[in-house]
User: What shape does this take?
Amino acid sequence: MDTATPAVTVALHDGTSVIAASGQVDARRHGELLLPAVDRVLAEAGTKLDAVTDVVVGVGPGPYTGLRVGLVTAATFASALSVPVHGLCTLDGLAYAAGLEGPFAVATDARRKEVYWARYEDARTRTGEPAVDRPADIAGTLAGLPVVGAGAVLYPDAFPDARGPEHVAAGALAALAAERLAAGQEFLEPRPLYLRRPDAQVPKNYKVVTPQ
Assistant: This one.
């Protein structure tokens, strides 16, 4: 599952292929849409939740509130089922889904006229850590490269060679995770990758009132 972008996306993978998937794009309803999506996917696959052996969750980068919905839900399922939870970079899922062979980048909408982005050597190999920047500040760095994701679509002047998909799909995350599990590769900790402070902060000069 992944809620790091406006897409609320869930998929079930049997180790070989995706057998059911759901995706809805709504930046303001992650908490409302995620659990019904899980129910829908399990029903479509004719599978009960207790048959799940591993949970995979996108860790971002992404906005504070939406990202936490997926991570908390994944951790809850993993605890209830006594199964491992594996973290994957959301940008890695987009790169995998794009399937490009040569160097390229992935960029998602970070709001505040910024993008979350990372460079890739191929669909499975990220060449650096994810970052958050204004498109104009990295346009030169990524000049000549295809750029995958909604961030590229939003800023065509900075990223003229925009490619799909725009949003991450849990099916791609699941397929990538299945490959990594089979190869015995390590995963990220299932912790949020924010890259910046949340929008909601304690006001400056805030005075604490102590009850008498």
The chain has six helices and ten strands.
